Amino acid sequence: MRDKHLAHPLKLEESVIVGIHVDEAFVPESVAQIIVFAVSGAEDEVANLVSVTSRLLSYVNEKTQNLKSKLLAEARCLSKDQLSSLPTLADTIRHGEHQDPP
Fold first, then answer.
1. The pLDDT value given to residue 22
2. pLDDT 10s per residue in the chain (102 long)?
3. 63 and 1 in contact (C-beta within 8 Å)?
4. 20 and 92 in contact (C-beta within 8 Å)?
5. Beta bridge partners of 36
6. Max CA-CA distance within the chain?
7. For position 74, what pLDDT does the model report?
8. Where are the domains of the chain?
9. What is the dihedral of CA 9, 10, 12, 16, to 10 degrees?
10. DSSP 43-88
């Protein structure tokens, strides 16, 4: 859910990666998300990016709170083996295994 008019001047490329944060006993504690933006290094684009990402993060957090609760409930139904077999967020980012939703 991106506001094209807001993002267009920055020529943003973004990806959102969602995962489950588990404790040492592999009990799901929270939903983690990483939002990755790619922009050029131009000073004005970087300043605009700071402003846009701040507003975007607030918007995303507000709109996804219900989804995070549902995802966490589903994760809590998984066994330790099922949870441990899932890729970590770090591995997902490192290997580019995430896919943006359609």
1. 86
2. 444 444 444 455 667 788 888 888 888 988 887 777 666 667 777 777 788 788 888 888 888 888 888 989 999 999 999 998 988 877 777 766 555 544
3. yes
4. no
5. 15
6. 48
7. 92
8. 4-94
9. -100
10. HHHHHHHHHHHHHHHHHHHHHHHHHHHHHHHHHTTS-HHHHHHSPP
Rg (CA), the chain: 16
Q: What is the pLDDT of residue 97?
A: 54
CA distance 5 to 12: 11
Residues 6+ apart with CB under 8 A from 50: none
With H, G, I as helix, E, B as strand and everything else as coil, classify residue 60.
helix
H-run or E-run covering 20 = strand 13-22
Query: How far is Cα 16 from Cα 100, in angstroms, rounded to an integer?
Result: 7
Nearest to 18 by CA among 45, 36, 39: 36
Q: What is the DSSP letter of 8?
A: G
Q: Is pTM beyond 0.70 here?
A: no
Nearest to residue 80, comparing CAs of 14, 25, 29, 43?
25
